[in-house]
Design a protein that fits this description.
single chain, alpha+beta, Outer membrane efflux proteins (OEP), five-stranded antiparallel β-sheet, three-stranded mixed β-sheet, 8 strands, elongated
Length: about 500
């Protein structure tokens, strides 16, 4: 780096005129910015959610919306509300989500990161302006050469001054300015602005993920409670049946094998209760953690399958809308934008840099004499620094910045691809859930009919106890499958809201 400096000492009255003459041309050339301007990467022209997603979006019902079940449909172009979880019709769920959004520490972390990024933007903008610094330096001096007339600060004392100790005061005002001739600071500000927007989208993604996790945990609790209720009903039925068999054995109608089979079925049902209760408690602990509450805190909200309503309408967006709606995609784009601006910074650092420094002050033995005749001074310095040889450091840094831009571009494209896959998978899961629930309900109906017939035949003595136990287990398993299919349908309905980006834009517009 070669520097060319010019230092001028002038009468202070000429300072404003000279500074103005230098500032005007430098400000005019400061408007340019070296490096590439950001352009969104090209994406495939045929954006879609795949065959399954397209079929759901194009299979029209009578009112022009995609019909996925008799009780649920996809609404093309529907706006997602910021409180999308209210679609499940549970006041307890609404309260729990709002509590989590207000108290979860991860939200505080995201808010603080956003504020820090915004402050960094404001700090970098400060480099567009001159720096002004005031300095005052009092000095106590012992001068052994005072008798020979070599006393420092002679402008205020005669050469015959015999004093060996004296005070010296210096005060000055320094102004420095680095004109942004090739746009280094402009690119840095734009990069930091993109980073601040990235933090904003990460805050929205954190909010969306937290709300989705609370909804998923509530659905899981409802499923576990349903499975526990089914298991406990089976245990109650088994206890009553065991009493009957034991009385029959006492009367000589039933054998010991019948009693043993009944006891085995009852023990197997009781064995299922322990892991279900364990999972329920773990799930409650998860809900407390999501709400930012200690593990011994009371959690008044409880959830059952009956307390959660399946949303009758689900939103469906065009693929191009998903790119604008999903906060993770928007965050990846802002990361790409920030990286693009840093290429301009690396390029501009290879070009000459300019700076102007001026100082105005005075020095004297006494405070009042600093700005009297002979005491004031003024300096104006201009500096031009241009790199001539650095071993290729700046060139390699620019090449590294361009490779980082390629990385960010590929990451953005991968994020978009993953987003489309997420939506397509969720749409397919919703359709599969509907079919699975219909099938499970059919199996449960058939199993209950078979159990009723089996109980009549057993009561009439036509079949043994083992056949009845098998029929009871079939109903039990069918009830488990129905509950699982219902919970999966609820969970994937919530997952679709998340896959489409939630309603963060609506929330931002209301802020």
């Amino acid at each position: 780096m070669t520097s060319l400096n010019a230092v001028i000492a002038l009468n202070p009255k000429r300072v404003p005129r000279l500074l103005g003459a230098l500032a005007i041309p430098l400000c005019l050339v400061s408007g340019c910015a070296i490096g590439p301007d950001y352009v969104r990467p090209r994406l495939p022209e045929s954006l879609s959610f795949g065959a399954s997603g397209s079929s759901r979006a194009t299979s029209k019902s009578g009112d022009g919306d995609a019909q996925i079940t008799s009780g649920q449909r996809l609404i093309q172009g529907a706006e997602i509300q910021s409180d999308w979880w209210t679609a499940f019709g549970s006041p307890d769920l609404n309260r729990l989500v709002e509590r989590a959004l207000a108290a979860n520490p991860n939200i505080d972390v995201a808010h603080a990161a956003l504020r820090a990024a915004q402050e960094n933007v404001s700090a970098q903008r400060g480099y567009f302006f001159p720096t002004v610094q005031a300095n005052y330096a009092p000095l106590r001096v012992r001068n052994p050469n005072s008798q020979s007339g070599n006393t420092p600060g002679a402008q205020t004392s005669g050469p015959g001054d015999a004093s060996r100790l004296y005070n010296f005061h210096t005060a000055q005002l320094t102004v420095g300015f680095n004109p942004d001739v090739f746009g280094v600071n402009k690119r840095l500000v734009e990069s930091l602005q993109a980073s601040a927007r990235l933090q904003r989208f990460q805050l929205e993604a954190t909010t969306l993920t937290l709300a989705s996790n609370v909804v998923a945990a509530a659905i899981q609790e409802a499923l576990l409670r349903q499975q526990l209720a089914t298991t406990e009903a089976l245990i109650g039925s088994g206890v009553r049946a065991l009493g009957i068999v034991q009385r029959q054995q006492s009367a000589g109608v039933a054998s010991k094998l019948d009693v043993a089979n009944q006891e085995t079925g009852l023990a197997q049902a009781r064995q299922l209760v322990v892991p279900l209760r364990k999972q329920l408690e773990l799930n409650r602990n998860l809900l407390r953690a999501l709400c930012g509450a200690p593990q011994d805190a009371e959690l008044p909200e409880t959830f059952t399958m009956e307390s959660l309503r399946l949303p009758a309408e689900l939103p469906l967006m065009l693929p191009s809308q998903v790119i604008e709606q999903r906060p993770d995609v928007r965050a990846a784009e802002e990361q790409l934008r920030a990286t693009s601006e840093l290429v301009g910074v690396a390029r501009a650092n290879r070009l000459p840099q300019f700076s102007i420094d001026a100082s105005l002050g005075g020095g004297a033995r006494n405070f009042a004499g600093m700005f009297s005749s002979g005491g004031p001074f003024f300096n104006l310095a201009g500096n031009l620094a241009a790199p001539l040889f650095d071993g290729g450091t700046l060139r390699f840094r620019e090449r590294a910045a361009r490779e980082n831009l390629n990385v960010a571009t590929a990451q953005y494209q991968a994020t978009v691809i993953n987003a489309f896959q997420n939506v397509a998978d969720t749409l397919q899961a919703i359709q599969s859930d509907t079919e699975a629930l219909d099938a499970a309900l059919g199996v449960e109906r058939s199993a209950r009919v078979a159990l009723a017939l089996t109980e009549k035949q057993h009561a009439s003595g036509y079949i043994d106890r083992l056949v009845l136990l098998n029929a009871q287990r079939t109903v039990f398993q069918a009830s488990f499958d129905v509950a699982q299919a219902q919970a999966s349908r609820l969970g994937n309905s919530a997952a679709l809201f998340q896959a489409l980006g939630g309603g963060w834009q609506s929330a931002s517009n209301n802020r």
